[in-house]
From TrEMBL:
It comes from the Bacteria. InterPro entries: DUF1659. Residues 2-73 form the DUF1659 domain. This is DUF1659 domain-containing protein.
């Protein structure tokens, strides 16, 4: 059985370390930006993430792209 995928949506996630807990482990906060075109290139998404991270009061430690796809039996 062959399966293909069809893009449904994409979002940009900026992950920032907001501090540490009592054990000294890092605490993170996510900022999600929905409505990203699934066809957007990774280079363009990264450039947008860098621009948005400059507007945040907390330094961004990671940038992630979250893609949602539908699996279709071919």
């Amino acid at each position: 059985m062959a399966v293909s995928k069809s893009p449904i949506s994409a979002s940009l996630r900026l992950i920032a370390q907001t501090g540490t807990n009592a054990k000294g482990e890092p605490l993170f906060q996510n900022r999600d930006f929905k409505g990203l075109k699934p066809s957007a290139t990774d280079d363009n998404v990264y450039a947008a993430a860098e621009a948005l991270s400059g507007l945040m009061s907390i330094p961004v430690s990671r940038i992630a792209r979250v893609d949602t796809n539908q699996l279709i039996e071919a």
